[in-house]
Design brief:
By secondary structure, the chain is mostly helical. The protein has a domain of about 300 residues. The protein is built from 13 helices and no strands. α6 crosses α11 and α10 runs antiparallel to α11. The N and C termini lie far apart (about 95 Å).
């Protein structure tokens, strides 16, 4: 009589799912593999013991001798080869290596390869931009001019003028303004060139007389005729070098004219359809990042526009201050020196002072050391007004940048792209700072900061209505 016993497997317990880290998952897998290895080894050992027991019983029976084959006289005795149990060994070094590496080193390694990857990408992009510098620099200048002139074009458009004519009028008005200023400066230089030449010669002779009066100065060092002969001989010996430099200057002039044309065309289209151009570039990014990138870019553009307009006001105040001091002292070429200070003030911290030092040199040569010291004091006073009143009130409300960050940005801009790099370094830094802050605010749901003083930037418009 047979009794069938049915075995019912108990359902595996269901544990609540929980998130496991890589180290915990590796430990749990290794524990399961180890228990499985022990179970397989125990089963194989049991089978081997059963086989050995069966073989022993067969050999000990009465028919074992008759069943065994007879060995010849010269045949060697057979060698028994033991049967080794099969073993499965799985080596997993992942958890051990993870546990052996300190957590700080893991974090440092994770940051390191990402930093190297980003640095390599930046270097590659910078290399490409360097090869295309004759196009990139005019476009960068056009972007800065668009940030300054876009509110004017928007205002004309709100008054009823179509967008195309409003952009054209803004561009032509800016060109006319620059041409008028340059005309006044050139007329001032031409009108005072003769007087300035006489003052320069007189100041140079006074300097030579003062040097001759010093006891440790050799007479040959300040001999004008001897220096004239040396300079003439140097020019004769360097004719080929001078010709090569002249050819390079002609090439650079051609590049400059082409850059001006690119800048003007780019500026017109930035004023006419800047939003449409940005919308096209925005489509190149992943669809899920469109909204965040658009909002961050708009906030960065607002800061850039406010920064450029504040910089123009600061530069204008610096130029007016230097012009007033120069006119009081009757320094020659005062309008030209004021225009030079205006252009130099676009480089924060150092631009206005360095360009103003040219006015000090002109005052020293044309008027004397006393007037030069007074001119230097006036420039220092203007710089103090800029640093303690204008920049905190105007630039600080547009975008707050630490002076050390500004100085480092200017230094890197000079190393990378010379004077143009110094001009665009701080505006780029202002845009990037605001862009990153806006992305951080969106990711952490921080309330947005108040916008800069209106009108800060162009209004948001669809490409179809632009």
């Amino acid at each position: 009589m047979f009794i069938a016993i049915a075995t019912v497997e108990a359902p595996a317990p269901v544990f609540p799912a929980r998130e496991e880290g890589p180290v915990e998952l590796g430990k749990r897998l290794r524990t399961r593999l180890t228990s499985r290895e022990k179970q397989v080894a125990a089963e194989e050992q049991a089978e081997l013991d059963d086989d050995l027991a069966a073989d022993g019983e067969a050999k000990s029976g009465p028919q074992a001798a008759a069943a065994a084959p007879r060995r010849g006289l010269f045949e060697p005795e057979p060698i028994a080869i033991p049967v080794l149990p099969a073993q499965v060994q799985i080596t997993s070094t992942g958890p051990e290596s993870d546990e052996a590496v300190p957590k700080a080193l893991k974090i440092a390694a994770a940051w390191a390869w990402r930093i190297f990857l980003v640095a390599g990408l930046i270097y590659f992009v910078g290399l490409i931009l360097g090869l295309l510098s004759e196009v990139v620099i005019p476009v960068a200048v056009a972007i800065l001019l668009a940030a300054m002139l876009k509110p004017v074009a928007n205002q004309l458009h709100r008054w009823g003028l179509p967008r195309g004519p409003s952009a054209a009028v803004t561009l032509l008005g800016g060109i006319a303004l620059i041409a008028g200023v340059l005309t006044l400066i050139i007329n001032s230089i031409v009108g005072q060139a003769g007087e300035l030449g006489m003052q320069v010669v007189s100041g140079f002779n006074q300097l030579l007389e003062w040097l001759r009066s010093l006891p440790w100065i050799n007479e040959s060092w300040v001999n004008v005729d001897e220096w004239g002969t040396r300079i003439q001989q140097f020019l004769v010996d360097s004719q080929s070098t001078i010709a090569a430099y002249a050819g390079d200057i002609g090439t650079q002039v051609g590049h400059f004219v082409a850059g001006v044309a690119i800048c003007l065309f780019s500026l017109f289209y930035f004023l006419f359809d800047g939003r449409g151009i940005f919308t096209f570039l925005l489509k190149l990014m992943p669809r899920g990042a469109h909204h965040r990138a658009d909002a961050a870019s708009l906030r960065g553009w607002q800061s850039l526009s406010a920064y450029v307009r504040a910089t123009v006001l600061v530069a204008l105040v610096d130029a007016i201050g230097v012009l007033i001091v120069a006119l009081i002292l009757r320094v020659p070429l005062a309008p030209a020196l004021a225009a030079l200070v205006f252009l130099g003030a676009f480089v924060p911290l150092v631009g206005a002072f360095v360009s103003g030092f040219v006015a000090v040199l002109v005052a020293l040569v044309a008027l004397g050391p006393v007037q030069a010291l007074i001119m230097l004091a006036g420039i220092i006073a203007v710089m103090q007004v800029e640093g303690h009143i204008l920049q905190p009130f105007l630039l600080g409300r547009a975008v707050h940048l630490h002076p050390l960050a500004v100085l480092l940005a200017i230094a890197m801009g000079i190393v990378i792209a010379g004077i143009v790099g110094a001009l665009v370094a701080v505006p780029i830094l202002a845009f990037v700072k605001t862009f990153v802050q806006e992305l951080y605010r969106q990711s952490h749901q921080v309330p947005p900061p108040p916008p800069p003083d209106p009108p800060a930037a162009e209004p948001i418009e669809d490409a179809a209505t632009a």
